[in-house]
Amino acid sequence: MGSELTYRGHETQSMADSYSPKLKKPWPAVTRVVRYMLKEQRLVFILVGIAIATVFFGLRSATTISSGRITDAYSVSEAVQMMNPRRSVYPTGFDSFNLGGKIPLGLKRKGLRIVVTGGAGFVGSHLVDRLIARGDSVIVVDNFFTGNKDNVMHHFGNPRFELIRHDVVEPLLLEVDQIYHLACPASPVHYKYNPTNVVGTLNMLGLAKRVGARFLLTSTSEVYGDPLQHPQVETYWGNVNPIGVRSCYDEGKRTAETLTMDYHRGAGVEVRIARIFNTYGPRMCIDDGRVVSNFVAQALRKEPMTVYGDGKQTRSFQFVSDLVEGLMRLMEGEHVGPFNLGNPGEFTMLELAQVVQETIDPNAKIEFRPNTEDDPHKRKPDITKAKELLGWKPKVPLRKGLPMMVSDFRQRIFGDQKNIGATATTTSTTE
Questions:
Q1: Which one of 180, 191, 224, 249 is the catalytic residue?
Q2: Which part of the chain is the NAD(P)-binding domain (predicted)?
Q3: Residue 427 lies inside a defined structural domain of this protein
């Protein structure tokens, strides 16, 4: 037993005497990290998550972009707008305008922010109705010299409608996409009292330049003066008396057209010019001196209809809805103009009086008076250009549109007891 113990002790001592250290393993820190990550399974989860995310986003991109084309998610026009968000994208043709553009299923047309100067007036309020119905946000700017809040009151409370009491002869700062510039007294009674064509147009052109908005000027057939060419085409320069009683309006609109084209050529402003011929319809000023409104108001009040001169002067009358359609097509189109917007159906003043008699009172009387100064003898638009480039032509004939105007006038004249029996105090013209 003793020898065995001695032997074992000797053996232990001998092993201790011959001890040599173990060889160091390579990359000890790396191996410890790998063993730890594998043990905790964290690295596996990270790698799996990266792989899933890569596959998911790769498949999603493949459904949107295929062979360099934008397919499911966006239309081409929307993609262009995403790449250049400051650029306004307008439809290139009337078909796309009528349908609101080609919009993918489930997406709505993006409404524009539009200012309408004179938007509480006769034509302006009907234009505002159409723009609001289309889904745009509209800012009406009006000083109520000839406009009326009643014309736009039905939009109060609509979050896409704003009304600013402001005279455009003073500058105005707004952020908008389009400007319809209608603000200007259009009847002789008003423009002889307060001519504001030039300064207001200059201010609104300045606004269009600052914010990059498209600008539409509503000019007039009066730029042709007492024309020597019949019917009038846009290339005709007119026959205007520069110092006559109507020149503040005639020459003012001609100057406004000049300013508009100068801003277009010199400052790169996108502009459109419409030359509007005689327009009638609901919301016209009752006693503004224009022939249709005067004839209707006089016949309703049982007064003689006032015809100036021999009554053989001719005019062309378009219903307001036709004009609004033309203005919107012009704004959304790609052509500067000018464009004649009017109804080529030509009536003498006596013929107009007879149509009013048929509509209101067959026994209405006609009274002749001396003609007014510089009253044009003939006025008829050539609308070939508007037909070809805008796809526009008037649809409402005088005998269909006049009853709608008469109904509106009857309600406004006799609906307000204060106006019953009132007599017209203004001078009628064939404007």
A1: 249
A2: 116-405
A3: no
Tell if the pTM clears 0.85, that is, is over it.
Answer: no
Q: Does residue 305 sit in helix, strand or coil?
A: strand
What is the C-alpha separation between 277 and 342, in angstroms, rounded? 5
CB 334 within 8 A of CB 390: no
**Is 249 one of the annotated active-site residues of the chain?**
yes
Alpha carbon distance 212, 365 (integer Å): 54
CB 327 within 8 A of CB 265: no
Domain residue limits at 342: 108-419
User: Rounded to whole angstroms, how far apart are CA atoms 179 and 207?
Assistant: 9
Which residue in 272, 144, 274 sits closest to 205, CA to CA?
272
Task: Write phi, then psi, for 314 (nearest 5 degrees).
Answer: -115, 150
The CATH number of whichever domain residue 181 belongs to comes to 3.40.50.720
Per residue in 51-88, pLDDT tens? 888 877 777 655 544 444 433 433 434 443 433 433 34
- Model pLDDT for residues 17-28, shown as the tens digit of each residue: 555 555 555 556
Q: Both tokens of residue 52?
A: 């899933």
Extended strands (E) in 310-383: 314-316, 318-319, 339-341, 346-348, 366-369
Domain tally, the chain? 1
**What is the rounded CA–CA span in Å between residue 332 and residue 95?**
11
**Which structure tokens are listed for 351?**
């013929």
Is there a contact between 257 and 223 (Cβ–Cβ < 8 Å)? Answer: yes
Has residue 297 been placed in a domain?
Answer: yes
